[in-house]
Amino acid sequence: MAREDAVRCLRCLLYALNLLFWLMSACVLGVAAWIRDSLNTVLTLTAHTRLEEAAVLTYSPAVHPVIIAVCCFLIIVAMVGYCGTLRCNLLLLSWYFCSLLVIFCVELASAVWTYDEPSVQRSDMISLKSRMPNFGLQRYQWLTHTWNSFQTEFKCCGVIYFTDWLEMTEMEWPPDSCCSNQYPGCARHAHYHDLSDLHQEGCGPKIYSFIRGTKQLQALRFLGVSIGVAQILAMALTLTLLWALYYGRKSPELDTTVAAPDDSTPLTVTHRPSAEAPQSGCSRTNKSCAVMTSTAAAKPSELQFEMERLS
Asked: What share of the chain is helix, strand, coil (3-state, %, to 5)?
């Protein structure tokens, strides 16, 4: 009874862990997809600068293709673990344990391989101004779109201040994406009438803060550590369940085993007037029983002759 309760408890814990694997893997995939768009924008603006290298070092562990593939595979493995726990199948549970071990080793190797502290300073933000003169040119439409998207999303203007657009380009006023309330010609109107309608913070500090780490990145790191801890716990519980199921199936066989009869056991034979050999109390494998059966089966004439000779 105690063993059955322990197995039931282990199965419930594995159910909970597999459900947790599904939820955390889905969260990792969702946050990684969300953060990838902003990362691509930052990498476009910081191309060929130290900021680009720092951004790659910071976010590659979170959006690396290996990590994304591992999370997708973990969802499938969790399904197999759920089925193995439900049916108490030793083969499925063994495959589940081996898969978790492989996934954990891959995650650990990827974390060690991609871990590196980015070296970036605020002075590196000045290098972003070198990309501003290409804004608005026909062959740099992708860069123009990236600047507008970043300024709109992060609510910033220029690198340090909105005057960077007037300094680095031939523009007389900033782009319309710098306006807090955007409409065609809003930047021109704000430049001549009310500068408060323009975003007052530069995009350089925004990019610097993004590279140093965002809330989404912290959430991904927390999820990664949580998944690793849950995998270790799931592997330990799976081994314990395998041990309990394996020895639980062997115990009934050992209990039902009957001991072999001993030849030294005394045997009592009751003589009958019939010439038939007694069947009760004899075993086919008992040698002494066979001898007594042959004696009891002797002819009556031989027994009478022996008795007259002795008298």
From this structure: 75, 0, 25
Tokens of 214: 């965002």
Biggest CA-to-CA distance, the chain: 152
* pLDDT at residue 285 greater than cutoff 80: no
**CA distances from residue 293 to 180, 264, 278 in whole angstroms, order as listed:** 113, 17, 7
**Torsion over CA: 66, 72, 78, 80 (sign):** negative
For residue 276, the model assigns a pLDDT of 42
Closest CA to 156 of 197, 122, 201: 201
Q: How far is CA 46 from the centre of its chain?
A: 34
3-state secondary structure (DSSP) of residue 188: helix
One-letter amino acid of 305: F
pLDDT single digits (tens) 104-116: 988 888 777 766 6
Q: Which residue did the predictor score with more confidence, 59 or 280? A: 59
User: Tell me: the pLDDT tens digits for 290-309?
Assistant: 444 444 444 455 555 555 55
d(CA 58, CA 24): 21
Residue 228 CB neighbour total at 10 angstroms: 15
- Residue 209: the pLDDT is 83
Gap between the Cα atoms of 300 and 55, Å rounded = 110
Question: Quick one: tokens of 69?
Answer: 């593939």
CB 161 within 8 A of CB 202: yes
For the segment 270-289, the average pLDDT, to the nearest whole number, is 43
If you average pLDDT over every residue of the chain, what do you get?
77
Choose among 80, 115, 110, 116: nearest CA to 98. Answer: 80
Which residues are registered as beta bridge partners of 179? 198
What radius of gyration, in Å, describes the C-alpha atoms of the chain?
42
pTM of the model: 0.64
Backbone angles phi, psi at 136, to 5 degrees: 90, -10
Q: What are the phi and psi torsion angles at 292 (to 5°)?
A: -65, -30
Burial class (CB in 10 A: 0-12, 13-18, 19+), 207: buried
282, two tokens: 């004899």
